[in-house]
Structures are given as C-alpha cells and as structure tokens.
Specification:
- The protein is of the alpha+beta class and 518 residues long.
- It contains eleven helices and 29 strands.
- The strands form seven sheets. It has an eight-stranded antiparallel beta sheet.
- Helix 1 crosses helix 2 and helix 7 packs across helix 8.
- The longest helix has 19 residues.
- The protein starts with a strand and ends with a helix.
C-alpha cells in the first residue's frame, strides 16, 4: 500500500494502491528486503529460493522472529516535526519488537545470601521491578517511572525497596501517554508505569515483595568529567537555586552538586559540556532562574604510580586533660583493576589497633584522598593496606586515628610518585570524504589517538580517544571545518595519565586560581 497524507501535520492519512510509477521501485525494495531477511531466517530463505510469494502477515512474522533473535534490525524513517511516518514507526514497534514475554527472566541477587536467582515474566510471580527514572509533576509531586519485570503492584500497596532496605507505600499508579496521565488501579509484569507516593526511592533502585526480596543490577553511573561554577544573578534566588538543584539531583543520578563556601558558588558536575548546558537551560526555561556561569573545568584526578610501604602516621596531642593518640602504618600501591576507586585492606594482627578504630583509619584515608598532594584533586585507583599501629588505653580516639591516617596517606602519596589523570573520551565523527583530512588534522592537534576509520554509506567515520580538556567547543570547530556537514558523538571512556608538560600547566593554573581567591 501507499501512504498518502491529507494535511501538513501528518494527522490524517490513508492507505491507497501503489501508483503505477512507483510499482517497479517497490518491487526492487521488496526484493532487497527479502534478500537481507533470508540471511537471518531459514524459512524465508527457502521461500526465496523456491520463488514463492510471502503474504504481508508472513513477512511481518518473519521480520519479528529475526528481530527477537537479534539477527535483523529494520530501519524506518519519519519526521517528528510534521509527524510524517510516525504512525508507521509505532506500528513497527508493535509488530516487530519483542514483548516482555519474549525476553529471558530477569536475574538478580537475594540480598541476605548473595545467591543469584531468576523471576519469570509473570503477574503471578513475586514482585520485581526497577525504578529507572524520576520526574517532577506540578500536580502529584514526584513520578517514579518503573519497569515491572514480575508480579503486580496494586494502588495502595506497601512495597519493599531492597536497595535501601525500606518499605514504601504506593499512593497512585499512573499510566503515561506522552504528557497525559491515566490513573490505573494496578500494573502487572511487562508494564512501564509511574508510581506516586514513594519517599526514599532513587533512580536505579529495586522494588520487590518483602517476603521474596531481590536486588536487580542497578544502572552504572559514570563519574562526572566536567565541572562548572554557577551562582544566581540575585541573592534572592539563592534558596531557589538550592531547591532546583535538589529536584535535578533526584531526577538525574549522573549529576553532582557541591557548594564552595570560599567563593559562594555552586559547583555542578556532569557527563560533558552539553549535559551541563542542558541543566543551565532547564533552570531558565522551567524555573525562570537566571544564573552566572563559569568556564567548564575538567574533572582531573590524581593517583600513584609505584608502591610505598611502611608509611607511618601519628597524631599525638597533650594540652591539659585527656590527650589524643593515634598511630597507624600503611602500605599503598596502584590498583590492578582501574575504575574501582580506593580498596582498603585491614591486616592488623594481635590487636595492635583495636577493632573499633579500624573504621576510623579507613575514614581518614578516604577523606584524605579527596584532596591530592599535586593540586588538590581527588586520588583514585590505589590499594591501602593497614599493616600495623599502636594505641593508648586512655588517649586514643576515632578522631586521632582519622588524623593519623590522613598524615600517613599524605606521605604515602608523595613516596608513591603521584601523577595527574585526565578523562579521555570515546569520540566518533561522521564526515563527508572531502573534509576527512581537515577533521583528522584538527584531531591530531587535540592529542587524539585514532582507533579506527570506516565508511557509513557515502560518508567517512573516524573513532578516536581524545582528552576531554581538548574538546571544549568542539561542536563549533567541527561545524567550521566541514561547513556544518559533519556530526559527532562523544562519551566518557577512561582516565589516563596527563603528559608532564600539561601537568605543569594544571598545577600553575590551580595555584593561580587559589591565589586569586585570596
């Protein structure tokens, strides 16, 4: 059939016979579809070889089988601006994509035992659901978008958040239709709904039945790579800024917010320059909040490059009355597995440090690692082993051991040869062939490492790893290089050591900024 639209907005359309001048093109496209589909489905292959015609319903069923098996991916076109093709895309979602019954049972961990278990996609199984998004609504408050994998939720039910170990009451269940809401009495396995009334739940939390607890693997939230200072244009908006930030933090687990008391600025950190620009735009658009913003800053880290052993830290204070005494000995070494932060290992034997003070030593190490010795950036990817120490029966305290651990860590970082780490991005550019040389030349000036080159139809692609520090305002640069005919995508990949000459500039800039604040 041929789809003919009756208006400019794509609201009214009709299916009519294919015009004569398009029949040959239709046959060519259909033949190409069957050729591709035959590679993914044996039944279609046999029909194709036997030159037997397939009915539309048989063709839809074959496409669905191949899609569900992950062997075939249909691509449809449409435009949301004029709604042309949107109805066909929605029909294809229903016809071809797997339903909840087509996917394997959800797997998770029983919190108390750590055992892996499965839940079938059935409303009769115990409840297992994932709260994957939070949005604010001016009428009902927070909406917790939830995918129900098994079981059912009834309005008014008390459910169990196994991630946080708390009970929650569902006051309403809302079925969302774009921006329209439909209150429903219950929701079952396979449905995506919004829950109202939850207090403690966050994005990525598992919701389940208390008598059959399950923890589904949560979303992995990467560490932020870019920070920006913001402050309201008027002092009257300071409280409003705090309220808006709390709302955004609930909705976006990848956003971080800190308040700098020295500069009276709020520091927001996120996944990239565009992420923070969207946050700023939403403040203005949704909350009429005007802010002054600083230049985005890279979220550098520090780490050690070699092992240091037998590092002592002592805190002894005696100024009348009860004194303070804490003493610990630590070993540090670079972590074998990167991206895991700090690994604290306790190897105290014979009660050299009482058990109640071990956690204070760990707390001191973690607090000390928030500010490295090179330029005050957080220290990551190292192992700390507590090997020895001593205590005083009267004067020892948690605070004394925290301070002793901080002193020991500072010395360990110096002896461990601390270096800077910078976020490296995975960048893909799609470029017309005529501009490929200019784009690669520009990437080379940005310290990029080309990983692969390829083709995408008539366009060229390049994938590379490039330091985030070199990528600010890249959208404008790429537009200028290619007359607006190229596109790119970028996401955080890993942290890598900063070259020595760049590290010196970072230290200098950090020192200059600190002096300016004074």
């Amino acid at each position: 059939k041929y789809i003919q639209y009756k208006d400019d907005q794509g609201l009214e359309y009709e299916r009519i016979p294919v015009p004569d001048n398009l029949k040959e093109k239709l046959q060519n496209y259909r033949h190409a579809l069957l050729e591709r589909l035959a590679d993914a489905d044996d039944e279609v292959m046999q029909r194709f070889l036997d030159e037997k015609t397939m009915t539309p319903s048989e063709l839809k069923a074959a496409i669905r089988r191949a899609v569900v098996q992950g062997k075939f991916l249909p691509v449809l076109v449409g435009t949301s601006l004029r709604n042309k093709g949107v109805q066909m895309v929605l029909d294809a979602v229903s016809d071809f994509l797997p339903s909840p019954l087509d996917v394997p049972p959800i797997t998770g961990i029983v919190p108390k035992t750590g055992e892996h278990t499965e839940r079938p996609t059935s409303p009769d199984a115990p409840l297992a659901a994932l709260a994957f998004k939070i949005a604010s609504d001016p009428y009902v408050g927070k909406l917790f978008y939830t995918r129900i994998y098994s079981g059912r939720i009834i309005s008014g039910d008390t459910i169990y958040n196994s991630t946080r170990g708390v009970k929650e009451r569902v006051s309403k269940i809302v079925l969302m239709h774009a921006n329209k809401q439909e209150i429903i009495a219950k929701a079952e396995a396979g449905e995506i709904v919004a829950l109202v009334g939850l207090k403690e739940t966050k994005s990525g939390d598992t919701i389940c039945a208390e008598n059959a607890p399950l923890a589904i693997e949560s979303m992995r939230i990467p560490e932020p790579v870019v920070s920006m200072a913001i402050e309201p244009k008027t002092k009257a908006d300071q409280d409003k800024l705090g309220m808006v930030m709390r709302k955004f933090l609930d909705e976006d687990p990848s956003l971080r917010v800190q308040y700098n008391h020295e500069t009276a600025q709020t520091i927001i950190s996120g996944m990239g320059e565009l992420h923070l620009e969207i946050i700023i735009d939403r403040m203005k658009r949704e909350h009429a909040l005007e802010t002054k913003i600083g230049r985005p800053e890279v979220a550098y880290k520090e780490t050690i490059t070699q092992k240091a052993t037998g590092i002592e830290g002592k805190f002894i204070s005696q100024s009348g009355g009860r004194g303070q005494y804490g003493h610990c000995v630590i070993d540090v070494q670079p972590a074998e597995e990167k991206g895991k932060g700090i690994n604290f290992i306790n190897k105290i034997k014979g009660g050299a440090i009482p058990r109640e003070f071990i956690s204070a030593v760990e707390k001191g190490v973690r607090e000390g690692a928030l500010n490295g010795i090179l330029a005050g950036y957080p220290v990551i990817d190292f192992d700390v082993t507590l090997v020895d120490g001593s205590y005083h029966d009267v004067d020892s305290s948690e605070l004394a051991f925290q301070l002793a651990a901080k002193y020991a860590l500072k010395e360990a970082l110096a002896r461990g040869k601390s270096v800077f780490l910078e976020p490296v991005m995975d960048l893909e550019c799609v470029v017309p062939e005529d501009y490929m040389g200019s784009v690669i030349g520009d990437l080379n000036t940005r310290r990029a490492k080309i990983v692969s080159l390829g083709n995408r139809g008539k366009l060229k692609t390049t994938r590379c790893e490039v330091p985030l520090a070199e990528m600010f305002n890249y959208a404008n640069a790429l537009r200028s290089l290619t007359q607006g005919r190229a596109s790119f995508s970028m996401e955080p990949a890993f942290y890598a050591q900063v070259p020595h000459h760049i590290a010196e500039k970072i230290i200098g800039a950090r020192a200059e900024a600190a002096a300016h604040k004074k």
